[in-house]
Amino acid sequence: MDPLQQLAARQTRRAFLGQGTLGIGSIAMASLLNASEQSGRTEDAVSELPHFLPKAKRVIYLFQSGGPAQMDLFDYKPDLAKRHGEEVPTSVYPAERKTTMTSGQTSFPVAPTGLKFAQHGQSGTWLCEHQPHLAQVIDDVCVIKSMYTEAINHDPAATLFQTGSVIAGRPSMGAWVNYGLGTENSNLPAFVALTSNGSAKQGQPLYDRLWGAGFLPGRFQGVKFRSQGDPILDLYNPDGVTRPQRRRMLDSIASLNQQSADHFNDPAIATRVAQYELAYRMQMSVPDLIDFKSESKAVLESYGAKATKVGTYAYNCLLARRLAERGVRFIQLYHRGWDSHGNAQKQVPMQCLDTDQPTAALLSDLKQRGMLEDTLVIWGGEFGRTIYCQGKLTNTVYGRDHHPSCFTYWMAGGGIRGGISYGETDDYSVNVVENPVHVHDLQATILRQLGIDHERLTYRYQGRHFRLTDVHGKVIKDVLAS
């Protein structure tokens, strides 16, 4: 339309009345920005939620980017040692299920794990030797050995776990939770994303859309804390700028933005105002959050030597606990480096050295503070690894390709039954033979523990109602404590 015609259209009586309703929207926004922390939720929360009594108030998701090898960590197959170097039968692993990275190989020899396993806890859960700290808390953990997915490449597989679809553009799980339940602490984001790099290698790229809002309003996206320097850019006022001056500046910007909102009716403007206000409040809350001086020596030591080094997995685990106790609902940790195509026997222990102690410390720390019972902790990657060797197999070196048909996840706390192993795989750790768990089943269960019926939390977009689990997913009732 011609700009003059657009301007004339805005001057009609209907347009005036329609734009006038934005005043109500600004009142609602003010209510959002000054929401009472005592209520435990904001005006943004969906009014009918929770659908039922939640078992968990918050989620800490320890996403292991790259695809941890299930047979090197949890899915113990001792009989495979006798089959070292034998060809994996095509009846077990047909050619059409191999990636282009290995489909051209002329041989697909069995590569049993070179790591030692032992049973731990009253549950007798099998763990590899490089997880001694997790072994000490394993009776609080539910190990799911029968996860499976359709995606065989990293980005679509990670996108499926985070958003419920292999196609980019859908809201992330944390955004859905933020949209549905709102926040418990208006001075911090309801959804925070943290990243770290493993010692084995830098790993796969992580895109902001993994913690994005997709087609939900932008204010529901995750806030990424940087892994070096200040966690949030421009968190502190420049020299010579006082807090009252910053307040007056934001008020002036808000007034200008309101004029734009009245004129254009663009919801992105309201999102920008909300983000400015959140950033202003975070100036007071984040410095205390990232100041670890209040942590005891024993707590710091429990997370390991890198607990105070910004950007490490250990630092992020401790920061996750501090975020959780301050009311952040969804805390997403992404740790890279599990993509062991080459020397898995060397890379897996290196990754365990980074992650085992901080992960176990997080569980113990939450439990000691009485928070594990209402904090759901999740550990796992986007898929598993092949039992056949990628590249040349030797007695000391083996590589593993991507494998979506079976892999391991675990959950703890938040109303999950601890000390159990759920699901089984075949003798080669290639296919699920008992209690299969799809990505959408896991997502449905996570939402269930937060008091959300995954089939009822929907958002209308482009003519249809979307949900995190699309048209699939069922709650894994056997892993629930009650």
Key structural traits:
482 residues, alpha/beta, Alkaline Phosphatase, subunit A, nine-stranded mixed beta sheet, two-stranded antiparallel sheet, 13 helices, 33% helix, globular
SSE arrangement, N to C: HHHEHEEHEHHEEHHHHEHEEEEEEEEHEE
Mean pLDDT reading: 89
Shape: globular
Rounded to the nearest angstrom, the radius of gyration is: 24 Å
What top-tier CATH class fits best?
Alpha Beta
Beta-strand fraction estimate = 5-15%
> Which architecture does the CATH hierarchy give at level 2?
3-Layer(aba) Sandwich
Low-confidence stretches: 20-41
Q: Structurally, how many domains make up the residues?
A: 1
* Total of DSSP H or I helical runs spanning 4+ residues: 13
CATH topology type:
Alkaline Phosphatase, subunit A
Termini separation: 60 Å
Task: Please give a structural write-up.
This protein has 482 residues and is of the alpha/beta class. It is built from 13 helices and 17 strands. It has helices spanning 3-10, 13-20, 22-33, 70-73, 132-136, 154-163, 173-181, 243-264, 267-289, 297-303, 313-325, 344-368, 439-449; strands at residues 58-65, 117-120, 125-128, 141-148, 191-197, 223-224, 330-336, 375-380, 384-385, 402-403, 407-412, 420-422, 424-425, 432-434, 437-438, 459-461, 464-466. Strands 1, 4, 5, 6, 7, 8, 11, 12 and 15 form a nine-stranded mixed sheet that branches.
Topology:
Elements lengths: L2 H8 L2 H8 L1 H12 L24 E8 L4 H4 L43 E4 L4 E4 L3 H5 L4 E8 L5 H10 L9 H9 L9 E7 L25 E2 L18 H22 L2 H23 L7 H7 L9 H13 L4 E7 L7 H25 L6 E6 L3 E2 L16 E2 L3 E6 L7 E3 L1 E2 L6 E3 L2 E2 H11 L9 E3 L2 E3 L16
Helix pairs in contact: 3-9, 8-9, 11-12
